[in-house]
Amino acid sequence: LYEARTEPADPAALAAALAADHLTFTASSTVRAFTALLGPGERASLTGGDGPRVISIGPVTSATAREEGLTVHAEAAEHTIPGLVAALLG
Fold it and tell me: What is the pTM of this model?
């Protein structure tokens, strides 16, 4: 068992994430926690095609990302960390 808890964002870390080539999400809770940190302009950068590509570990996480307005560019066929890495590299 685990509990997902949101911590305040470090502005530099958030800026670095938004400047990355890819964002990977391993659970719906990570999608929700990340998008809760975003302002409208930052969120738009993830839907306009100019921001990082979003890679998801599986269909549930992908569905949550889409509900949050993100474009999912790749989804792991095997819903594991190695599968996520394969989707990232594929």
Answer: 0.86
